[in-house]
Amino acid sequence: GSEEAAPESAPGGEGKYQTLLINNTGGVYNITLNRPTKKNAITVQMYEELILALKEAGEDKSVVLATMTGSGDYYCSGNDLGNFMNITPDKIKEMAVNAGDLLQRFVSAFIDFPKPLIGLINGPAVGVSVTVLGLFDAATFHTPFSALGQSPEGCSSYVFPRLMGAAKASELLLFNKKISAAEAYNRNLITAVIPDDVFVKETQATIQAIAKLPRESMAFSKVLIRSAEKAQLHAVNKEECEVLIGRWQSQECMNAIMSFFTQKTAKL
Amino acid sequence: GSEEAAPESAPGGEGKYQTLLINNTGGVYNITLNRPTKKNAITVQMYEELILALKEAGEDKSVVLATMTGSGDYYCSGNDLGNFMNITPDKIKEMAVNAGDLLQRFVSAFIDFPKPLIGLINGPAVGVSVTVLGLFDAATFHTPFSALGQSPEGCSSYVFPRLMGAAKASELLLFNKKISAAEAYNRNLITAVIPDDVFVKETQATIQAIAKLPRESMAFSKVLIRSAEKAQLHAVNKEECEVLIGRWQSQECMNAIMSFFTQKTAKL
Amino acid sequence: GSEEAAPESAPGGEGKYQTLLINNTGGVYNITLNRPTKKNAITVQMYEELILALKEAGEDKSVVLATMTGSGDYYCSGNDLGNFMNITPDKIKEMAVNAGDLLQRFVSAFIDFPKPLIGLINGPAVGVSVTVLGLFDAATFHTPFSALGQSPEGCSSYVFPRLMGAAKASELLLFNKKISAAEAYNRNLITAVIPDDVFVKETQATIQAIAKLPRESMAFSKVLIRSAEKAQLHAVNKEECEVLIGRWQSQECMNAIMSFFTQKTAKL
């Protein structure tokens, strides 16, 4: 820790979050991804802000539980591929190592979160926003892993086989299969499928009911549930990020990302 | 082991069980919880008798499998909260430690049971009668954990996430969700949903068929299945009981139990 | 490794496989069990050829993925019980030890297979052809374990409880329950149920699509998914085979096999 004074954020914590909306009220810490024009793709800054928000929610004694949702029609389109653009060849390794470190700290924040964490998946979910779902609750999605020439993250290589068996996990993590919300429910990735028109009303009612339950009991129960595999989850997270650091420097991955942007341009 | 002579139980084993009905016949050891006027709530005596019955069934070479059911309309309403009543403040810690030890031995009896154990869940199941279900088979239930300000037991903090994923397990263990028999089937907690009117007939047919299967093969297979995580289950059981010993001495838990009795009275 | 020259197999690898059809083309290594008049029951020779074929497919850099299917109407009727016939009493132990070693090497070949492995289960599947399914993907089956007085193999004592919970796994591994393809899907044993009339067309389309995905990414992802429990799977495989070596020498097992052949004859 540095002993120099850190620059103060604005009073009331405003200014701390540029990419998120935070609403901490009545024991519920609401996190909203707030880049709706970019389908809430996660930039380097947003990763850092999410790590900070989860830390705050975990430490604030008034907080019973946290929720995460997206602004607009999308929940989250995953890692912002702009994070990989405009990198000169001599900087690729540095970029890959830094991105691996950031991802590992991001996923660790979910592994270590000490209170109930509820995903209010308001729209499509892609990539890392899906793979971390095994570390909390949720509602609709698809997964484009292999198509981007990458490999699983968010502890999904470990958690997904435990949710749905290795074969169904491989469909998502190796074979690029897209599944419906109903199928995601059957595969234990999410705990409820809620129609759009009642989504806010129903999820708010659930959250308010949960926020009134004995909070110590919930916290102790969550710690018990997580404790049996916390060490394993951290080891998996580290291994996944190491593999990704290699993948991100591979020709196969670069081709896949180039192809992604080319196709996108071609469609315009 | 003491070398003093133990007092003899009545001939034929009668008198050994006051809270259970035992019927050991044709290779099937039937255990019936027998406090129907109390919805088969488990008293300290009943815990001890269940431990003894499982030990007997495990050691008796004529026994192929054991079953467990409830007398009357209820399967089991869980821990008898009377176990926590009329405790003077200076005795609370002692009560909590003793209750933790008893619960740990009770759950260990299920972990270590060496033969097939089949639950004939004849009616509603609550609390600890649900959380140990992950250690055998079953048919209808709900779970009131968090509402009582307690925390998971019966290895449910470890087994439930492995049956249905952490998120769906959290619904039951943290968020007090009640689920139908059909949903319990989908979540791998039970192996069949059987209508009331054919319940006895169908379950008896199944049990008789199983009792005729090669018994050594079944015993070896059960040992193989259990062995991979027996040490882990015992560690989880110990950790859960330690957390509960703390919970039972907490203000939050006492308030929840008081509230439970007050509401019950208010309804009368 | 011997330094003596091994007898050459015929050019082009023909002659290497008498019980399998191998078709290695376009990155897809197809293995077909080819004893249709015996419902593709697995002889000692077929075990050895399957081990060899998986080794080849794993090492051949042109191979992206492997598939396994059966010739004729059956997928596989499991271990050829003829392997246990015509054994004189003094040779029973030797037979059991050799069969245990062979089975352990066979299952290891699945545990260690480094690429996607897709089962095209074209008809009924029995015994060891079911228990190894937890190590890849599939379509219809039943399981006759206990009825043969044996015990689980193929890592099923470990993998099946993780696919469907211990109770539902016990139905298959202890209680000889037969389940439908739909139920096998719900229990995470297989990833798709496909009608007969479109089976070949649909599975070929899926395989061709998978063969075009980024192959390095798939291989790294499979390694990640498998790595978390590879050591455990090998330990389970070893333990299961040790138990089976004992079972195969037991009176109960011999009676069950005799009864199987007697019933078969009686039906003729």
What is the string of helix and strand elements of chain A? EEHEHEHHHHHHH
Radius of gyration of chain A from the CA trace? 19 Å
List the total number of helices of chain A: 9
Q: Helicity range of the residues of chain A?
A: 40-55%
> What sort of overall outline of chain A do the alpha carbons produce when their principal axes are compared?
globular
Structural class of chain A: alpha/beta
Mean pLDDT, all residues of chain A: 85
Which sheet architecture does the biggest sheet of chain A show? 4 strands, mixed
Give a short overview:
The first copy, chain A, is of the alpha/beta class.
Can you tell me about this structure?
The structure is a homotrimer of 268-residue chains. The first copy, chain A, is of the alpha/beta class and 268 residues long. Chain A contains 9 helices and 4 strands. Chain A has a 4-stranded mixed β-sheet with strand order 1-2-3-4. In chain A, helix 1 (44-59) runs parallel beside helix 2 (92-111) and helix 2 (92-111) packs antiparallel against helix 8 (230-248). The radius of gyration of chain A is 19 Å and the shape is globular. Chain A starts with 19 loop residues before the first strand and ends with a helix. Residues 1-13 of chain A have low confidence and may be disordered. Chains A and B meet through helix 4 and helix 7 of A and helix 4, helix 8 and helix 9 of B.
